[in-house]
Amino acid sequence: MIEISPFGSERARKYHLVNEAGMQVNLTNFGARIVEILLPVEEDGGLRNVSLSASSDEEYKTKDPYPGATIVPVAGRISKAQAEIKGKVYHFTENEPGRTLHGGVNTANEQYWDVEVNEAANSVCFTITLSDGSNGFPGDVRVKACYRLTEDNTLEITYTAQSDKDTIFNPTNHVYFNLTGDVRQDVADHQIRIAAETYAPLGEDNLPLGRLESVEGTPFDFRVGGTFAQGFTLEHPQNQLVKGYDHPWVLNQVAEPVEVVSPDQRIRLTVTTNQPAVVIYTYNFPSQDMAVFHGAFSLECQGLPNACNVEGFGSILLEKDQLFEHVTSYKFTWF
To answer: What pLDDT is recorded for position 303?
Structure first.
């Protein structure tokens, strides 16, 4: 039974999924968003919320509109707030100096999506159409974001899209995690493994410099595991630049390219995706009302940021009538 309840304002709804193991997920149609991921791990049988959450749509609007949200059409930053698509230059909304961040202003993470509930599949799908010219992006783009909670404690996210014009499209989910369940403590002692040989260094404008560098000998080397603390010492110029991590790693083609273990060793999170990269942001410029500095981390699976303007970063072109599909899964094991 997928329970539906109010979530703040009149249009906002919360959708509650649960499986046989007792894992629970709360979603909302406001931004096609993950609100809570609840795991029955506490010694007293209680639930631990391992995602950064707000209590209503209004709270997200006033504090931080990104946590848990679907980011479309293009995640991350676009240089000069423009891109060339099939020989034509399109200009996008500049919501940072000289840049477009996360698709511009008043985009889908702050909209109310249509909803389809499938109790048999234990899933909820949200749909929206991004109108032609919205924030400068071409095409009426029909987007569907589906969340399914499985019996093996996996939250599956599937994004599909089609456009009636050639456009660019690179979605992600902006869920933040803290596996301690307490976003008032930092994530420095989380153990993380990333199957990645290279990462994309950033410039002063937080845009990738346009090249990939080896992780060897840097705080970006998590191939055999490490903690976020190795980048929080801020000895490396790239960590100093963003006060932690806000970087893309190019993932190796392995079954579970990312794994995170909680400091108390009670929870393991593994990630699978059909996307080439993961962007990890360690809440370096926090909304203090929601979490402390370094109080959460993202695992945003996507194409490389600014790929539309960087040769060698892959293509995020979505051609007219082409079907786009992105699949990312977060699997939880607890002990």
So the answer is: 98
The CA distance from 169 to 151, in Å, is 31
What positions carry a catalytic annotation? 174, 300
CATH number, domain with residue 292: 2.70.98.10
- Three-class secondary structure of residue 171 per DSSP: coil
- Predicted pLDDT at 288: 76
What gap in Å lies between CA 129 and CA 143, rounded to an integer? 6
Residue 7 to residue 16: CA distance in whole angstroms: 11
Annotated binding site: 174-176, 246
Q: Name the 3-class secondary structure at 108.
A: helix
Number of domains in the chain: 1
Q: Which residues are annotated as a binding site for beta-D-galactose?
A: 174-176, 246
- Print the domain residue range for 125: 3-334
Sheet containing 114-118: give its strands across.
Answer: 114-118, 123-130, 141-149, 154-163, 324-334, 267-273, 258-261, 191-194, 226-227
Q: Which residues of the chain have pLDDT under 50?
A: none
Spatial distance between the Cα atoms of 26 and 17, rounded to a whole number of angstroms: 6
State the pTM of this model: 0.98
Q: Which two tokens stand for residue 203?
A: 């410039």
